From TrEMBL:
This is Dihydrofolate reductase family protein. Residues 6-172 form the Bacterial bifunctional deaminase-reductase C-terminal domain. It holds the Pfam family RibD_C. It comes from Klenkia sesuvii. InterPro entries: DHFR-like_dom_sf (IPR024072), RibDG_C (IPR002734).
């Protein structure tokens, strides 16, 4: 069985909506599209590139798929070569036309379809796709969470972990890695069980 990795950019208040550009996802009147751009640094770019080593499939929500399909086929370089070459699996409630080569629409039983994808591949990356991420978090259908935290707060927008998430344990896989602009990479693995409780005043 392969692994599913969630690759996510977020603010300190865990907003993950539209990091890449103003028109990426303005839904809900979100006015901070492109918030990641002023904080980009070559160190973060190297972290992202290293994180995609071994990737052999992408798992995307419909909105992210549409953005990627309009952009990556016309690009060159390592990411374009990877994204254009690997299979793309798309979660959607509708029946979209998937024009990007290598794209497959997942069936209506999303958890079952994702489990089948994980069986077929070694490393499946989920990029952005916050609505899809909520399903994967609720179902605990992921193996690693790679979270780039940026030193800003926005106060509004879609969250990386939204209401309805289930109690989950995670464990840190590597020491946190910071960039000169204050972005911190946190790599977590999915843990067993649910969070324990205790009494700090006991004893």
């Amino acid at each position: 069985m392969g692994q599913i990795h969630l690759e996510l950019f977020a603010t300190l208040d865990l907003v993950g909506q539209a990091p890449g550009g103003p028109d990426e996802d303005p839904s809900g009147g979100f006015g901070f599209g492109g918030w990641q751009a002023p904080l980009m640094h070559p160190d973060a770019g190297a972290q992202v590139q290293a994180s995609y080593a071994g990737t052999d499939a992408l798992l995307l929500g419909r909105r992210t798929y549409d953005i990627f399909a309009a952009y990556w086929p016309r690009q060159t370089g390592p990411f374009a070569e990877l994204f254009n070459a690997v299979p793309k699996y798309v979660a959607s409630r509708g029946a979209p036309e998937l024009s990007w080569a290598g794209s497959t629409l997942l069936g209506p039983d999303l958890p079952a379809a994702v489990r089948e994808v994980r069986e077929r591949h070694e490393v499946v990356k989920v990029v952005g796709s916050l609505d899809l991420v909520q399903t994967l978090l609720r179902e605990k259908l992921f193996d690693e969470l790679h979270l780039w935290l940026h030193p800003i707060t926005l106060g509004a927008g879609k969250k990386v972990v939204a209401d309805g998430a289930v109690p989950t344990n995670l464990h840190l896989l590597d020491p946190p890695a910071a960039t000169p602009t204050g972005t911190v990479l946190l790599r977590y693995g999915l843990g067993e069980g649910t969070p324990a409780t205790g009494d700090m005043t006991a004893g």
